[in-house]
TrEMBL record:
PANTHER family recorded: BIFUNCTIONAL COENZYME A SYNTHASE-RELATED, DEPHOSPHO-COA KINASE-RELATED
EC number: 2.7.1.24
MF annotations from Gene Ontology: dephospho-CoA kinase activity
Highest rank taxon of the organism: Bacteria
Coiled coil location: none
Lineage start: Bacteria, Bacillati, Bacillota, Bacilli, Bacillales
Function: Catalyzes the phosphorylation of the 3'-hydroxyl group of dephosphocoenzyme A to form coenzyme A.
Protein's name in the database: Dephospho-CoA kinase
Major location category of this protein: cytoplasm
Keywords: ATP-binding, Coenzyme A biosynthesis, Cytoplasm, Kinase, Nucleotide-binding, Transferase
Catalytic activity: 3'-dephospho-CoA + ATP = ADP + CoA + H(+)
Biological or metabolic pathway of the protein: Cofactor biosynthesis; coenzyme A biosynthesis; CoA from (R)-pantothenate: step 5/5
Residues annotated as binding ATP: G29, T30, G31, K32, S33, T34
Length: 226
């Protein structure tokens, strides 16, 4: 899955020095954030979509201006920052509004991620980069990645973790899980799978083995087949 022809404009000439982009994703309660931190600890350069989603709507940004134009001043807090709770209440009740928000935010997030990636490649030519994207498979970012890593936990484990973590009832937790693509569907699309139902040390061993594999392939110039 090549990213070069799909790459947005900008990015400091990253195409001349690009390496693989490894998409990291999962589902609520699967432990994607844990795996992302493990990769960082191993030295991986991780570009976080959630970080960019906050950056592109900071006060004074054209992203925030576009949101206000589309949704009105009521989505701003008194200090001029985005009222995420109010905006969420609007978009989760109206599919058209949710799509409108995505059309504003997603291209800006992806452009920022590309810029950060290309800047890294200028200093570290050809090195693999991990894109941490919660909705990688559901959204448009998947067309930019070369391989997909899915952090997997069984639906039963997801339910238990979400209930414990967020203090939710079973019904509330199931509602959040069902709002996402089923984790088994994501698993079927993955290039690599990190099983995260068991002990943390087992997860860490898989992450270490995967990162070593990716680094070895990078040095040899060999691309794993999907």
């Amino acid at each position: 899955m090549s990213t070069q022809s799909n790459r947005p404009n900008g990015g400091n000439g990253g195409e001349r020095v690009r390496g693989k982009i490894i998409g990291l994703t999962g589902g609520i309660g699967t432990g994607k954030s844990t795996v992302s931190q493990m990769l960082r600890d191993l030295g991986a350069f991780v570009v976080d979509a959630d970080v960019w989603a906050r950056r592109v709507v900071e006060p004074g940004s054209d992203g925030l201006r576009a949101i206000v134009e589309a949704f009105g001043d009521e989505v701003l807090q008194p200090d001029g920052t985005l009222d995420r709770k109010r905006l969420g209440a609007i978009v989760f009740q109206d599919e058209d509004m949710r799509l409108k928000l995505n059309q504003i935010v997603h291209p800006r997030v992806q452009q920022g991620m590309w810029q950060e990636t290309a800047d890294y490649w200028q200093q570290h030519p050809g090195e693999p980069v991990v894109w941490d994207v919660p909705l990688l498979i559901e959204g448009t970012a998947k067309r930019f990645v070369d391989e997909i890593v899915v952090v997997y936990a069984s639906p039963t484990t997801q339910l238990r973790r979400v209930m414990e973590r967020d203090g939710l009832s079973e019904e509330e937790a199931m509602r959040r899980i069902r709002a996402q693509m089923p984790i088994d569907e994501k698993r079927a699309i993955a290039t690599h799978i990190i099983e995260n139902d068991g002990p943390l040390e087992f997860t860490r061993e898989q992450v270490q083995a995967l990162w070593q594999k990716l680094r070895t392939e990078n040095r040899s110039g060999h691309s794993s087949s999907r």
